[in-house]
Amino acid sequence: TDLTHIRNFSIVAHIDHGKSTLADRLIQATNTVPDRDMKEQLLDAMDIERERGITIKANTVRIEYDALDGQHYVLNLIDTPGHVDFAYEVSRSMRAVEGSLLVVDSTQGVEAQTLANVYQAIDADHELIPVFNKIDLPASDIDRVAEQVEDVIGIDASGAIPVSAKTGEGIRDVLESIIANLPPPEGNRDAPLKAMLVDSWYDAYLGVIVLVRIKDGVLKKGDRVRFMQNGTVHQVDRIGVFKPSMQTVDDLGPGEIGFLTASIKQVRDTRVGDTITHEKKPCDGPLPGFKPSQPVVFCGLFPVDSAEFEDLRDAIDKLALNDASFSYEMETSAALGFGFRCGFLGLLHLEVIRDRIEREYDIELITTAPSVIYHVFMKDGTKIDLHNPADMPDLTHVDHVEEPRIKATILVPDEFLGDVLKLCQDRRGIQEDLTYAGSRAMVVYDLPLNEVVFDFYDRLKSVTKGYASFDYQLTGYRQDNLVKMQILVNEEPVDALSMMVHRDRAEMRGRAMCEKLKDLIPRHMFKIPIQAAIGGKVIARETLAALRKDVTAKCYGGDATRKRKLLDKQKAGKKKMRQFGKVDIPQEAFISALKMD
Ligand code: GTP
């Protein structure tokens, strides 16, 4: 296809504003997929995505469109992940296209993720087409949303297209506006091959599938290509496009988006953002701006049943095949035995992986407190990247500790503003900005990431009854008074409950954790002290009283089946517990103890 008849675009939206539904309608309106094959939300492949309603892997589709000008066009839609954890993937896929549809739910208005993603689109020099969705609903208010888009985002909303992705109203206008308002791609067919690796994933039959955007040159089956960042050379055994099912083609030229396979075994060998060129006739240099995505949140995953360790290893190996941004290494814990220390792009990423292990592999897990990476500067001048609070060196050797900070943007209706400010303040936040758009406030806070990784988002949702939206980006590291707090149960430290805290907040956190644990740990035949300590100093303490009676005592000499039932019940209760010294701690204690109210 010649360049002037190609348009490449992505869709920017807040979760639930209708991105997937709109994509489905565009595919349907152009007969890309025969009606009988049309499933709701074609682009969200994985079950778990569908259940949670979040798009995780970028997907793509090639749409053929006969426009009103009588010409035939090829439109390539790249579906970008909507969540902040995948910001780097979003920014790469944005660089693979020239424009974006900015979808805003006209019953809701602009939200935090709309903002975060729209700035990425603007950074990538995109033309933007505002699309106001859900006009079939009575609460739809296009004028208000237009005003918001102009005030908050600062772009012209006069060309906005009102649509209903549900009924299909306005879909033609969207297609026509893509042709009229988005620029065609640029590129030189005769130049050496220069292609961007936009995404990659593992397929059980084909091996790794690599999504590429050709900038210059032509890619053909059989070509030997080099991935410039890691230097590997592969022979291309298949190229094609997504319609959205895979269809092989003879070649891909400038401006086109498609896939290649080349007997690549692991997603790890393909770095998003890398540049692909011919081995024999390479391009002058890689595309700018490559950076590998780095995990920022770490936690330990241990099987509840230690006999399942090998199964867990197998599950983690398999998941990692398809997810280059998930890192892991073996970890042993005095209390929890063998497990893995895993790194994630963010909390959602952590939750998705944990869910998949529990569900798809049927392994019950203990997840330790999520932690961020601290920079620990030692008195001898060395620096340690601390991923696990349990590894914190003795304080006498430590000079100072730095922690990662984020810039958080929160949009919230006026009436909840006070609660949101209090929450941010409680989490050691520093207010940077506060502005109003209509009846909603936008607050920007500088916050420590470690105060956000655990339950910030849950708390935000609960204090605002779900009306706030939230997004963040990492800004850098800053020194603060941070210490390791240990929890001791029956005088034994439980390393899985160790955490880094700010010194001023340690007593409060310690007390809260001891109180929680006292409720979560069942009584034993003996008295159990539960303590929080910094270094050797106890800063909080609770005591769990001893259990006075044997559960079966009352049945002595009585009905044997009743006795058996009671004992079985006790055994079932044990299954989900782990022994620490002489004490059984239930699985849910590890998570619940860390939640702050
Ligand atoms: P993520 O994939 O989670 O980012 O969400 P999304 O932006 O793709 O939203 P999705 O397409 O899943 O739509 C969210 C909900 O809104 C679904 O229940 C849709 O059926 C509904 N919806 C989407 N568009 C319309 C519309 O035009 N009108 C109405 N009434 N509902 C819509």
From TrEMBL:
InterPro entries, alphabetized: EF-4, EFG_III/V, EFG_V-like, EFTu-like_2, G_TR_CS, LepA_C_sf, LepA_CTD, LepA_IV
Alphabetical keyword list: Cell membrane, Elongation factor, GTP-binding, Hydrolase, Membrane, Nucleotide-binding, Protein biosynthesis
Domain Tr-type G: 4-186
Major localization class: membrane
Positions that bind GTP: D16, H17, G18, K19, S20, T21, N133, K134, I135, D136
Keyword Nucleotide-binding found: yes
Localization per Swiss-Prot or TrEMBL: Cell membrane
Membrane disposition: Peripheral membrane protein
EC number per UniProt: 3.6.5.n1
UniProt cross-references to CDD domains, sorted A to Z: EF4_II, EF4_III, LepA, lepA_C
Annotated GO biological process: positive regulation of translation
UniProt catalytic activity: GTP + H2O = GDP + phosphate + H(+)
Functional note: Required for accurate and efficient protein synthesis under certain stress conditions. May act as a fidelity factor of the translation reaction, by catalyzing a one-codon backward translocation of tRNAs on improperly translocated ribosomes. Back-translocation proceeds from a post-translocation (POST) complex to a pre-translocation (PRE) complex, thus giving elongation factor G a second chance to translocate the tRNAs correctly. Binds to ribosomes in a GTP-dependent manner.
Protein name per the record: Elongation factor 4
Gene: lepA
